[in-house]
Structure formats: structure tokens, C-alpha cells
């Protein structure tokens, strides 16, 4: 039955709809995989096998209700569920049970999806690691903050899971764990009922093993079936691809995924040209960090009260304290720089269907006391652009490396089309 | 003791700090006023006099803790409070007690403010009226959705109250009730812990009787004391004022407040020039309505489940159903139009310190089955600009009329400076 846990969400939904498999069989296969692997991987903040089986039986007995009918989904623990604890990765909220579902959870349930459980988040979706490890090597970090979602999908506990990104919290763990991570244009998938980290940056996205599953989630969240209304066919030479090696990070090691992607795309006939960004973009990571910290400080005042503060990790406290040291005037300057950079990038991105950039600083770092560096993610979170990471191979330690595609805001469909082309080029 | 309920928040805080009055005296005066008037006005969703008095005594016994020390504040019932019910104006959430405070409530408590109670919101801060009436004439609407906050401040139950605006929910009720309503640039005051209506538009703001209290709230929410760091002094002729009568609404009646403001400003030496807006701006109200409805539909799916839907008012259901009929492609077109209009308005607004426009369609309409028309507010909510309404007199029915000032995003300080000049011009 191992093939059941290899299925994409779209394959699983089709098989259930065609009555080739029952949802109970699928859920049982997921639960067996979790039983076997969870003691090592620690991807789950909450899972209740009996409840999952009961939901599966009920779903098997019902008529197919939507595009996700019967698909088990992992929900990052910063997202409210009315029937499961939601602890935001913090002992301050231990046992907290929200009174209602987040909008995205309601949409998943309405589409027939099964909420299998809550996946581990770092503390308040920031940088303090939690218990999850990299499923490819438990001595390495899975990345953060969507650690549990990335590990659970990579390790075949579920076909897909929800993640959130404010800094690099979808792209980085997806790249480290060797799965697809997709952060749509900010504001595309509803964030109601997700604990705010930094409200102007918070974005809901998806971790999966199949690009098909991203268009499935478009159907669930936005009511549009991208597969039924494809983009016009184009020859490779008509696709405008760029690449950019940002002037920060450590190019010699980080660029492996980027170089590999460019090589393979060129091998099958694509032109990949350098994209020229303004020098001012070199400061956008700092703008992001300041803007995020300012908002984080205000959004976590309840948790930062003296009585609760001691339950926070040092790296969370550090961001909050950084935020209290940023003046309102400095915050306004960050907002203005962001607006100007968004206008500039919209202009640049009009010349490209997608721009290839590094996903992360190479393979997942050793150790689990650090979730890795969002250096290649911050600026795209700030600009609100869509970003997608795709696995392209393994690095020197045998761990996955990815490449990131970014595009113009609200041109996500074009980005998904390029991702599909890149996937074909990579898989040969 | 009636003078106590006439004090602005800043005056009250100063008097408490100077030990000229105790907080218990102030809270008692507020509670007496509420006792007397609440049976008519119905501004409060929750108030507990004994708890308020206990908080007042505790605060009187403590050292002054911040700029709001001892000031009673009304909190709109869409904003989470961990010690009071938060029902979002809906029987679906009757008795709901959130597990934590919203960021703005934590900031108010940290600054020493007393949460006196929860003020009435229309259902989910949309258009279905609740029990509040206009304190100037109970046969007329107070406006919505920050109905209770506007009525409570106008009727001297509290010196200030929090409101939220997604469409016209601060400016309209403030104008109808004859108080100051201030919607800062979107994203200025933290919205964490406020029930999302349409996430890309939701803005936290303030209703008060004094412009001083807005700078006080800047100190509470943004840690900046505007009074301590004033803008450079300028002669009236150096202040660049514009006015715009939008090409919608009913100019003959609606423009009273606008005309009065221009007349009085000119009388004291200001030049007020017409502001020219692109013809395309005439469609921005429709763009706003569609974008809002799309997001509202997704954000209220939990409440719109068949089991709960029957508890919703017809006008709420209508917005949700409108939203489900808007395609994702149409939503993306709205977002693109918004971005283009924001860039265009930023350009126009650079030539002005503020642009005067109508606040509402004249006086509060008769009847309480409708909260009035946000026709003059929608586009500013869409553009994310700061907006402020100031009372300028009374209309033919003896009810208040206001004028609205709008400015460039993140130029709120300049707008507050113009508001102060206008207030002086109006009061002669």
C-alpha cells in the first residue's frame, strides 16, 4: 500500500472519486507512515488517528463534495481550527482551541478535504526552532517556520500541507526538505484566522510534491480551475526567463540550484538572460527585517507581557526587542522604500515570465538549533511577489537543493506555467 | 460633575496625572452618563459597571503607567478582548470570549487606558444595522459600522473609542454623530486580533471629540508623541489645500459640509484650489465594492455554513453572495486597478497637504433600518489613504454635517496639521 502515500493530492482525489481506493485506505496509509516515521521526524503538533479514521469513513459514505474530496491535508499550527488545538508553536497558548475555523480551513472542508492534523510551526512562525527535523537527515534542520508542513509532505505523511510566509517560511523549508513550496502573491489566499506575525507581509501558501496540486488549491481557495483554462501554448524561445544572483549571501555555494536549473533549461532550448536589478535592491532585506520586527513587536504584546515573556525563546524575544527599538519614522521610511521598490520591480518583471534566483543558502544546515537563513526570501516577501521553489537535485551532503522562481504580482499563473516547464527540464 | 464627561482624553489624562481628579470620579461620571442615556442610545454591546469601577480603583492606586493612564476607552465589538465578550455584532458568536487581547487593546492597556466596555458594531462590521441610534435624534441612524463608538463618543459616554473602516465605517458614523473620525493610512495601527472583514482594506482608527486625542493615540499605538515634535510652522498661504466634489452621490445636498469648510478656510486666508482627478476614478467605488465582497465571502465561510447562515441579516448575506459571484479573474483586475489608482493618487496628492471632499451624503438619514451610504468613503478605503472627518455645523434637520480631509499615504501628520487649521477656521 506504499503507493498510496506517493500519490499527489490530485491523483488521490481522482482515485477516490473513481472508487479505485477508499479514503479510509488512504488515511490508513498516511497514518501508518506517520506511525513509522513521526518518532524520528516530529512533523506534527497534533494528530488524532481515531478522529481521522472517523472523518475518512464519513467522507467515504458521502457523495463527493468538491475538488479536494477525500484528500488529507496538514494545517500549520498558526492556522485556527475549531476542532483541534492551535498553539502557534508556543507554550503560552498550550491547549488553545479557537472558536472557529480560519477561512482557509473552511474552504478546505467545503471542498471535501480532510484536516488530518496540525503541523509543527516554529514559535509564532519566527526563527526559534521546534521539534521537527529534516526527514532526509535528522541531524539537519527542516528549515522554518513551516517546518512540520515541509517535513510531513517530504516524508509522505500527507500529499500537501498549508504553510505561511512572512520572511522565508515556505520557500526555505520546502527547499531544505526537497518539496515544492509556493507563496502566492500576497493577499491571494485568505489569511483570516491565521495568527498575525507581520500583517503587511503575512502570506498563506502551499507545500506539495506536485505542481498539479497548486492548481488544485487554486480551485479550493479562489474557485478557479487553472487546468480547465490553460494558458496559450508557447515554444521555449517565446518564454522570457531571467536569472539573478543577489549581491548578498554566499554565491559559490548558494548558486548550485540556480546554476543547475539554468543549465537544464538551456539544454532543452530555453534562453535564460540575466535580469538587471537596481543597486538599491541590495538594501531590501534590511528594509524587510526592520518592517517585520516593528509589526511583530506590536502584534505580540499580549505574549510579551512580563508574566508570559519567560515562555518565549531567545530568538523570538530578540525580534520583538529589535521591533521596539525601531521608530515610527523609520517604519514609515521602510514602507516608502517598499512602495518604490514594488513599482520598480513591477516594471522589471514585465520583461520576464519568471526570474530564477536561489531558494536558500544551499542544503539544509547541520544541527537543529537554527532554521537557516531567509536571506534569499526576505525581499520577495517584502515586494509581495509570487515565489515558488522546485527541487532540482542534491548537494554535496546528499540533501535537497532547490531553485526559486519569482514573478510579477498577480502573474502567478504564468509563474506556475514556467515551473512546469522547469520541472520537465529538470526531470529530463 | 458633568464637566468630567466633556473632557478630552488628553485633558482627562493630564487631570488624573496632576491628581486634580481621580479615575474613579471620571469613570463614575461616564457610568452615570451611560445610565442616563444608554436606554435611548444603545451604544454598548457590553459594559460592566462594577468591573469598570474596580479597574478605576486599581488604576488610581497605581503609579501613572503611560500616556493614556486612567482614560476610559470604548472598544468596537469586532476587536478581541480577553476579559470581555466579543461577538462581532452577530448572534452566531453570542457570548464568545477570545483567549487573548487584540494588539491595539494590549497597547491601550500598556499605556494605562481602561477598557470601559465594548461598543456596538453592525453585524460583522458590514451594513446590517444594530441597536444603536443617533444620539442627536433617536429616529435617525448613527451610521455604521462603528455605530456604538461614534454614538458613545458623541454622547459623552467616553472621551474616545476605537473604530474600524473597510468601506466607510469610521468616517460615515463620525460625520453623522458630529464627532471626529480618523482612519489612518492602511496598516498604520496594528489590526492583529480584529475580526477580518476584507483583509486588504481593513483599517483601525479612532473616534474622538478632540484632535489632540488623535496624537495621543499615535503615542499609544506608534510610540511617537507628535506634540513633542511639531511640524515646521507655516503661513496659511504656504498650506496647499485642494477640494474635490466626486462625480457621484448627490452634489446639491452632499456638498454642504464641503462648501462650508472651503468658505471658512478662505475667510481666514487659505487658498483652496480644485483638485483634478482622472476620469477613471469614477469607477473606484465599484472596484472597492467588488474587491471587498470577494474577500468578505471567503472570510465569512464559517459563518455562512448552512447551520449558521440563518442567523445573518439580509444585507450581510447579500454582500457574501455578491462575493461568491465575483470571479478570481475579476478580483485580480480589481487589484490591478487599485495599484494603478494608488500610483496615480500618490502623484496627485504630492501637490496638496490635504484634499477636502464630502464626508457623507449630508445629515444622517431618518430611520434606523439603514446605516447610510458609504459612497464618499469607499475609494479612500480602497486607496489606503488617510482620511479624517471633522464636524463643521448642522444641516437643515439640525443634525451634524462634516467635511472629510484625505491625503497621501503615510502623510498622516500633515493631514492632522491641516485638520487643526480647519478646526480653528470653523470655530472662528
Layout of helices and strands:
Two copies of one chain form a homodimer.
Chain A: H1 9-17, H2 23-41, E1 44-47, H3 49-61, E2 72-76, H4 103-110, E3 114-119, H5 147-154, E4 160-165, H6 171-177, E5 180-183, E6 203-208, H7 212-222, E7 241-243, H8 251-254, H9 256-267, E8 272-274, H10 284-299, H11 301-304, H12 306-309, H13 314-324, H14 328-349, E9 354-358, H15 378-383, E10 387-394, E11 400-406, H16 412-427
Parallel strand pairs in A: 2-3, 2-4, 7-8, 7-9
Antiparallel strand pairs in A: 1-3, 4-6, 5-6, 5-10, 9-11, 10-11
Helix pairs in contact in A: 2-3, 5-6, 9-16, 10-13, 10-14
Assigned CATH superfamily of the largest domain in chain A:
Amidase signature (AS) domain
Oligomer: homodimer
Strand content of chain A: 5-15%
Number of distinct helices of chain A = 16
What is the CATH topology descriptor of the largest domain in chain A?
A: Amidase signature (AS) enzymes
Structural class of chain A: alpha/beta
Q: What is the string of SSEs of chain A from the N terminus onward?
A: HHEHEHEHEHEEHEHHEHHHHHEHEEH
Radius of gyration of chain A from the CA trace? 20 Å
Q: Helix amount of chain A, in percent? A: 25-40%
Poorly predicted segments of chain A: none
What is the makeup of the main sheet of chain A?
Answer: 11 strands, mixed
General form of chain A:
globular
Work out the largest interface and the residue count of each chain: A-B, 46 and 46 residues
Give the CATH architecture of the largest domain in chain A: Alpha-Beta Complex
Determine and state the CATH class of the largest domain in chain A: Alpha Beta
Number of strands of chain A: 11
Distance between termini of chain A? Answer: 28 Å
Give the total of domains of chain A: 2
Organism (chains A, B): Pararobbsia alpina
GO molecular function, one term (chains A, B): amidase activity
Protein name (chains A, B): Amidase AmiD
Domain Amidase (chains A, B): 25-416
Amino acid at each position: 500500500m506504499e503507493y498510496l502515500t506517493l500519490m499527489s493530492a490530485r491523483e488521490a482525489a481522482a482515485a477516490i472519486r473513481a472508487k479505485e481506493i477508499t479514503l479510509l485506505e488512504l488515511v490508513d496509509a498516511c497514518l501508518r507512515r506517520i506511525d513509522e516515521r513521526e518518532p524520528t521526524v516530529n512533523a506534527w503538533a497534533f494528530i488524532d488517528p481515531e478522529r481521522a479514521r472517523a472523518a475518512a469513513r464519513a467522507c467515504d459514505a458521502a457523495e463527493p463534495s468538491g475538488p479536494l474530496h477525500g484528500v488529507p491535508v496538514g494545517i500549520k499550527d498558526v492556522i485556527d481550527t475549531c476542532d483541534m488545538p492551535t498553539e502557534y508553536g508556543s507554550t503560552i497558548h498550550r491547549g488553545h482551541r479557537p472558536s472557529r475555523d480560519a477561512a482557509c480551513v473552511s474552504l478546505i472542508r467545503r471542498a471535501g478535504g480532510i484536516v488530518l492534523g496540525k503541523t509543527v510551526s516554529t514559535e509564532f512562525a519566527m526563527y526559534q526552532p521546534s521539534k521537527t527535523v529534516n526527514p532526509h537527515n535528522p541531524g539537519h534542520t527542516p528549515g522554518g517556520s513551516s517546518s512540520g508542513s515541509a517535513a510531513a509532505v517530504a516524508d509522505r505523511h500527507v500529499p500537501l500541507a498549508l504553510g505561511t510566509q512572512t520572511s522565508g517560511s515556505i520557500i526555505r523549508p520546502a527547499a531544505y526538505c526537497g518539496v515544492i513550496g509556493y507563496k502566492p502573491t500576497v493577499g491571494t489566499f485568505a489569511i483570516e484566522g491565521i495568527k498575525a506575525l507581520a500583517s503587511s507581509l503575512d502570506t498563506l501558501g502551499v507545500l506539495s510534491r506536485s505542481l498539479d496540486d497548486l492548481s488544485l488549491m487554486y480551485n479550493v481557495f479562489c474557485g478557479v480551475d487553472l487546468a480547465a483554462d490553460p494558458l496559450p501554448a508557447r515554444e521555449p524561445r517565446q518564454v522570457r526567463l531571467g536569472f539573478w544572483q543577489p549581491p548578498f549571501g554566499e554565491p559559490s555555494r548558494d548558486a548550485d540550484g540556480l546554476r543547475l536549473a539554468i543549465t537544464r533549461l538551456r539544454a532543452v532550448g530555453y534562453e535564460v538572460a540575466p535580469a538587471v536589478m537596481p543597486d538599491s535592491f541590495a538594501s531590501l532585506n534590511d528594509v524587510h527585517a526592520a518592517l517585520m520586527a516593528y509589526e511583530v513587536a506590536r502584534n505580540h504584546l499580549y505574549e510579551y507581557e512580563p508574566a508570559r515573556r519567560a515562555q518565549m525563546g531567545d530568538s523570538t524575544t530578540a525580534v520583538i526587542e529589535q521591533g521596539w527599538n525601531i521608530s515610527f519614522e523609520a517604519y514609515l521610511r521602510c514602507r516608502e522604500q517598499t512602495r518604490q521598490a514594488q513599482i520598480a520591480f513591477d516594471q522589471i518583471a514585465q520583461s520576464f515570465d519568471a526570474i530564477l534566483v536561489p531558494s536558500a543558502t544551499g542544503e539544509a544546515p547541520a544541527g537543529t538549533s537554527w532554521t537557516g537563513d531567509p536571506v534569499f526570501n526576505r525581499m520577495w516577501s517584502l515586494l509581495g511577489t509570487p515565489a515558488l521553489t522546485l527541487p532540482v537535485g542534491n548537494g554535496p551532503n546528499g540533501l535537497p537543493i532547490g531553485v526559486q522562481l519569482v514573478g510579477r504580482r498577480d502573474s502567478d499563473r504564468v509563474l506556475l506555467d514556467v515551473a512546469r516547464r522547469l520541472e520537465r527540464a529538470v526531470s529530463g
